[in-house]
Amino acid sequence: MNNSLSVDSAVKDTMPTVFGYIGIGISFGIVAAASGMSVVMATLMSLIVYAGSAQFILVSLLAIGTPIVSIVLSVFLVNSRMILMSMTTANFFKKNSLFENILIGSLITDESFALSMNKLNFTDGKLSFKWFNTVNLLAYLVWAASTMVGAMLGRIISNPEKLGLDFALVAMFIGLLYLQMINDKSISLKIQLIVVAIMLPLVYFGLIFISSDLLILVVTLIGCALGVILKHAFN
Amino acid sequence: MPSTKFVLWTLIACGVVTLLSRILPFILLKKFNLPAKVVEFLSFVPITIMAALWFENLFKPDIGHLPQIDYANLIASIPTVLTAVLTKKLSLIVIVGIISLALVRLAIWLVPSTIHNYKINIFIFCKKTSSVIATYSGHHVRRFFFINDLTTISV
């Protein structure tokens, strides 16, 4: 990763994360096909909803005949962490047009958000529309294409977990988390380490009460609040 | 799976709420400025959300009980973290992660009884009275078990 915000460097920066999209996209396609969705429907879901983990939940809820209101509410709750990510990112696009803001927002994902937060450390705190939009578009197309491939494979393979591909995304978050911690100079490494360490018991004990998808939003909010308190306590 | 029409409407409705969660902050923040306190709060979002997305994968939730540890993901995380510290290269980190988990799964497959923990629930049903007369629920480290194992059947 370097300080260039061009289309070329966006493509380069996105390459390592593409594994994650392909791995999970194919897994999702297989799961959708296994639950009785057609290839077209599975691909449409990736194009219209475009929401990673929420899509897995959506398929399982559809399969058991859940009413539409409950499905929409679950998907909203699981994705409500997008509000936090969009709020954080929007601060870097205040000078861009409303249209560009909406375009960036429409296709933002956990991964492109994490990538952009890392990029900031190399660009003196700047992001460009060109760079972010390229990252987002690439991710969107790869996600839809892998869903389609997965849904087609779904007739042959039934167990997508076998190959270790589902770990691609986890590995990516581990990598981006580490890179973020060593590169973000605005918060001291000590505080970052403490906050990350606190997240582990928060997630562990939180899982007793809340399902894992909703838990991410809750523990993120708690983690941020603790971070602010710690930062002031140490300064 | 419900009718195509129902599925399509559900997709559209879910698409709309997801889109709104994504773009409303952008639209609102174009007009308004966030207070410094909120900006400071949001500066912790990247590390907390990434840590949460990682840690969530280290456990298998069991609502109402302590989650079980996902040993496969936990073990695969170790070489992945090491690769991050040593190389700082995202593509390498991801590849090492995938290979690590594949190897761990292979090991688990070769030695099934050491790591797997099977949860079983047994209900003994009385046809005459149409009711459950005994239940058994427990964790087993083997794939197969014998009726003698069920020492704690409650009647």
Automatic annotation (TrEMBL), chain A:
Pfam families, per the entry: AzlC
Transmembrane segments: 20-44, 56-78, 137-157, 163-179, 191-210, 216-234
Keywords tagged on the record: Cell membrane, Membrane, Transmembrane, Transmembrane helix, Transport
Domain of life of the native organism: Bacteria
UniProt keyword RNA-binding present: no
GO biological process, one term: L-valine transmembrane transport
InterPro entries: Brnchd-chn_aa_trnsp_permease
Subcellular location: Cell membrane
Keyword Transmembrane helix: yes
One Gene Ontology cellular component annotation held by this UniProt entry: plasma membrane
Membrane topology designation: Multi-pass membrane protein
Family per similarity comment: Belongs to the AzlC family.
Protein name (database record): Azaleucine resistance protein AzlC
Organism of provenance: Companilactobacillus crustorum
TrEMBL record, chain B:
Keywords: Membrane, Transmembrane, Transmembrane helix
Name of the protein this chain belongs to: Branched-chain amino acid transport
Keyword Transmembrane included in the entry's annotation: yes
Organism field: Companilactobacillus crustorum
Top-level lineage group: Bacteria
Transmembrane portions of the chain: 6-29, 90-111
InterPro entries: Brnchd-chn_aa_trnsp_AzlD (IPR008407)
